[in-house]
Design brief:
The structure holds two protein chains of two kinds.
Chain A lengths: L3 H39 L8 H16 L2 H7 L1 H8 L5 H25 L3 H9 L4 H12 L1 H19 L10 H11 L3 H29 L5
Helix pairs in contact in A: 1-2, 1-5, 1-8, 1-9, 1-10, 2-5, 4-5, 5-8, 6-7, 8-10, 9-10
Chain B lengths: L2 E14 L2 E14 L3 E5 L6 H7 L8 E6 L2 E2 L5 H8 L2 E5 L10 H11 L4 H14 L15 H13 L5 E5 L7 H18 L2 E6 L2 H7 L2 E6 L2 E7 H6 L4 H7 L14 E7 L7 H9 L4 E10 L2 E9 L4 H13 L5 E3 L1 H11 L1
Parallel strand pairs in B: 3-8, 3-9, 6-7, 7-8
Antiparallel strand pairs in B: 1-2, 1-4, 4-5, 9-10, 11-13, 11-14, 12-13
Helix pairs in contact in B: 3-4, 3-5, 4-5, 5-6, 9-12
The chains are: A mainly alpha, B alpha/beta.
Chain lengths: ~220, ~350
């Protein structure tokens, strides 16, 4: 059985995980959403094609996405230090996570926005809508279910990455599972952490899908 | 009436993988205010490209698009947007915002014009009412039939208070009955709001039903234009003839003999003309094709008749038709034959 101390540690881990994943997803979207919008808009099929902007962002996105997360974590240490003041601990894991998540989120947003029917965009243009109106009232509004599904997937992916936080002394369930379960071979701590992670992903998956279904007015 | 749309020497070419494709070649046309102007052609004729040039959804390669006295290709983005508000457009696939309910779809152009969502909704109600869909205000497009969706699209266009309405194959995805009701609505809009309507279609019946003027487009070229009556009564070019006779698919097998086209208008329909001449000459006449069109409210009947091979009798029959005022016109079978192979 788990000692009270161990239970507290796991609860603390759960809290850390939620903080890390929550902040990373949030800031991931702060960067990734505009990135995705610009990619979708400046693509040659977009509403304001711009080869230079598209190609540059496309390249940066691909480069960031090719880094294995654990490497990114190390490479970004100077950046992390500049932003949060230190290169270890829970706060320090958020920075590389955001850098890993933003391009991924950007791609998901881009593909969601590209799913919007070209005809609907043209209809809006024929009504005299400007590009900003089209972005917010047509692209994002029409793609909202797909965006939400994307967010659910992003959350799960970031949660997966967050397990590596332990490498730089960050907290969270993943880090606990590795330190206690793997390094010290304590399955009684490994398994509850893993099960909590599974439940967490399940919970968000269900909430995400329910919400997107509720928001989707295309089939009824 | 002054011209509300003038197209001058319009060219449009696309670069595709197979090289340059010329979609429009030197198209010039003028559309009067308050007209219902039809542009007809087979698929691939370039008619959609042409109508999309009228609000610059498609930029012409060269030529002028003058709408309301303004040359659209010279306007800035902002000016173009404000001109576009006066040029409504409806589409074959309706293009409604699927995540907005019906009322909010209609409110959309009012929001674009800068009003608050609440005001826009309030104003939108009257337009929804005008197309007879007030009770569907809170439904979503996915819950509507095709005809209802097109009505919502029309209400949405009306909400931007346009002077022109471009219809890009707007009835092509609808069944004949729904097509009729949409066309009636368009006619109403033309009369009630004085909106000039441009109709793009491949269906002759649509032209007959509502258009006052018509232009025939083929392979990116404007081959014939005039009033709808003129086109039906006397199509001059083979392309136009082919479209007017697009129902006549069986003539191909019987092209060896003389064929005459006769037209019935008004009173002549009451007399058993064909029956009489058959009895008189004691020679059968083969009816190849017959059709009744209502061109702007006037019934027009037409028939393609295969005459007997005996020239004397054939000439006699033509004389007889002339007497009866049926404007007989001998037609070459080739035009129809060509038309039939191309249609497939």
């Amino acid at each position: 059985m788990l000692s009270q101390q161990e239970i507290l540690m796991i609860i603390e881990g759960l809290k850390d995980t939620l903080i890390i994943v929550g902040f990373s997803t949030f800031f991931g979207y702060v960067l990734g959403l505009p990135l995705g919008i610009i990619l979708a808009v400046t693509d040659k099929e977009g509403i304001k094609p711009n080869k230079l902007i598209y190609k540059s962002l496309d390249l940066i996105t691909n480069i960031l996405r090719s880094f294995p997360f654990i490497i990114l974590l190390v490479v970004l240490i100077p950046v992390t230090r500049a932003i949060v003041g230190k290169s270890y601990g829970t706060g320090a894991t958020i920075v590389p996570l955001v850098f890993a998540a933003a391009p991924f989120i950007g791609r998901m947003v881009e593909s969601s926005l590209k799913e919007v029917d070209k005809g609907v965009i043209e209809a809006a243009q024929s009504l005299g809508a400007g590009n900003m109106t089209i972005i917010f009232k047509v692209l994002i509004a029409e793609a909202r279910t797909s965006l939400l599904v994307g967010a659910t997937i992003a959350f799960g992916t970031i949660l997966g990455y967050s397990a590596m936080a332990g490498a730089v002394g960050g907290g969270g369930l993943g880090s606990i599972a590795i330190r206690y379960g793997y390094n010290r071979f304590q399955p009684q701590i490994l398994w509850p952490s893993v099960i909590l992670l599974i439940l967490l992903v399940q919970l968000f998956q269900i909430i995400g899908m329910k919400m997107s279904k509720k928001l989707d007015k295309r089939k009824k | 009436m002054p011209n509300i749309i003038e197209i001058k020497q319009l060219h449009k070419s696309f670069i595709s993988e197979k090289g340059e494709v010329e979609a429009l070649r030197d198209v010039s046309l003028e559309i009067e205010k308050n007209d219902i102007y039809g542009i007809i052609g087979l698929s691939g004729a370039g008619k959609s490209t042409l109508v999309r040039c009228m609000n610059l959804l498609e930029r012409p390669t060269s030529g002028q698009v003058i709408v309301n006295g303004k040359e659209l290709t010279e306007l800035s983005d902002r000016q173009l947007r404000s001109e576009r508000r006066k040029i409504g457009m409806i589409f074959q696939h309706f293009n409604l915002l699927m995540q907005r309910n019906v009322l909010d779809n209609v409110a959309f152009p009012i929001e674009i014009a800068g009003k608050s969502k609440r005001e826009a909704r309030k104003e939108a109600e009257q337009y929804l009412d005008a197309v007879g869909l007030a009770e569907k205000a809170s439904a979503y497009p996915a819950q509507l039939s095709g005809g209802q969706k097109q009505r919502v699209a029309i209400a949405r266009v009306l909400a931007s208070k346009p002077e022109i309405l471009l219809c890009d194959e707007a009835t092509s995805a609808l069944d004949p009955q729904t097509t009729k009701s949409i066309l009636t609505l368009l006619k109403e809009i033309n009369e009630k709001y004085g909106i000039t309507i441009v109709v793009i279609t491949h269906e002759m019946s649509v032209i007959q039903e509502i258009c006052k003027h018509v232009a025939v487009l083929e392979h990116g070229k404007l081959v014939e234009s005039g009033t709808t009556e003129e086109l039906f009564r006397n199509p001059k070019t083979p392309e136009a003839k082919r479209l007017v006779f697009s129902g006549s698919e069986h003539i191909l097998e019987m092209t060896s003999e003389r064929i005459v086209r006769v037209r019935f208008h008004g009173g002549s329909a009451y007399e058993p003309t064909i029956g009489n001449i058959v009895l008189e000459t004691k020679t059968p006449i083969n009816i190849l094709y017959a059709n009744t069109n209502t061109v702007n409210g006037n019934a027009e009947g037409e028939m393609l008749l295969q005459l007997p091979s005996d020239d004397e009798k054939a000439d006699h029959i033509i004389e007889y038709f002339k007497e009866k005022g049926l404007d007989p016109e001998e037609v070459s079978a080739d035009a129809f034959a060509a038309g039939n192979t191309d249609d497939n």
